[in-house]
Write a structure and sequence with these properties.
- The chain is an alpha/beta fold and 306 residues long.
- Helix content is 37%, strand content 12%.
- The longest helix is centred in the N-terminal third of the chain and has 17 residues.
- The protein is globular, with a radius of gyration of 18 Å.
- The structure holds zinc ion.
- The site of zinc ion (ZN) has 5 residues, from loops.
Length: 306
């Protein structure tokens, strides 16, 4: 029997400069700030979270391409956002294009002129033509309501440039913060007649029924699985997708709009992959379905082949 080694595109990672930023992040990862990731999720995590360190960590598991999702937190103004994007471009070059990045943007701290300028720069660069948004509350996040009418010029600027938005859908969809709910992002998608392609990151978790109602009929919206795998050691509050639910997701949405993703460094790649395998077994996914989810669908949706 020939064993075909898996080829994986990891469409949801976060890389950081070495040094101080990484130390701060490690403090968050390891439980200061009241947020504790189970240590078993972080097995073999490298000491740094640069593109190079990530690739050394991920390559033995079959990862050949990754998509970094940079976030400009609520404290970042235009110059800080531009610096993030420059750094991400540098990581693209250093990794010979194996770690691609979306652009960072901050729709609430930047003027319309600044937003237009940064979107144009992202579009002209080797960054993926889109932005990551994480609207939930907290200093590390962007803290806005996606349904706020003051964001309309921003959405129009994204739509006019044929760019995409990757939404952090929230690990806990029912948090009393302004997360991107399925209904809110469906409304935006429809208001701009499908001109803003979107990824609903984290699939919706325990709000999957809401996702089903509002999003699965929308062809330009894809889903990533980061953080929805059933884990051996669990957070007390997260409801994960089980095999039966996931089988239904695949039946409803198809594999063409569903991606893997392990949310490095919030989970190590080996641990994430083990969890994917458990979910794939529970959901009885074929080899073809697994290949689509782990490679072809994210490569096609993020247009990484070009
Ligand atoms: Zn993430």
């Amino acid at each position: 029997m020939t064993i075909v080694k898996r080829r994986i595109c990891d469409p949801h990672i976060h890389i950081y400069p070495s040094g101080a930023a990484t130390n701060n992040l490690r403090r968050v990862l390891y439980g200061e700030n009241g947020f504790q990731i189970p240590s078993s999720h972080l097995t073999d995590l490298p000491g740094e979270f640069t593109a190079k360190a990530y690739l050394e960590h991920a390559r033995p598991h079959g990862v050949r391409l990754a998509v970094n999702l940079p976030v400009a937190n609520r404290g970042k103004k235009a110059a800080g956002v531009a610096a993030i994007n420059e750094w991400c471009l540098g990581q693209h070059e250093e990794s010979c294009g194996q770690v691609r990045s979306l652009g960072a943007i901050n729709p609430t701290t930047m003027s319309q002129v600044e937003i237009a300028g940064e979107l144009d720069r992202i579009k002209r660069s080797k960054l993926i033509s889109g932005v990551k948004l994480i609207p939930m509350a907290g200093p590390a996040f962007q803290e806005f309501d996606p349904a706020d009418c003051r964001l309309e010029p921003f959405y129009k600027a994204v739509a006019d440039r044929d760019m995409m938005i990757v939404w952090h859908m929230g690990s806990r969809m029912k948090d009393p913060v302004n997360v991107a709910t399925a209904k809110k992002i469906a409304d935006i998608y429809e208001r701009y007649a499908g001109r803003i392609r979107m990824v609903a990151a984290h699939l919706g978790n325990d709000a999957w029924e809401e996702v089903r109602v509002h999003l699965i009929g929308l062809e330009g919206i894809a889903f990533d699985l980061a953080y929805v795998y059933p884990m051996e050691t669990e957070y007390p509050y997260i409801v994960r997708t089980n095999g039966a639910t996931f089988r239904r997701v695949i039946s409803d949405v198809g594999t063409g709009r569903t991606f893997g993703g392990y949310d490095f460094p919030h989970m190590s790649v080996g641990v994430g992959q083990g969890a994917f395998d458990r979910l794939a077994a529970e959901a009885n996914l074929s080899q073809e379905e697994q290949h689509a989810i782990l490679w072809q669908s994210p490569v096609d949706f993020y247009r990484l082949a070009a």
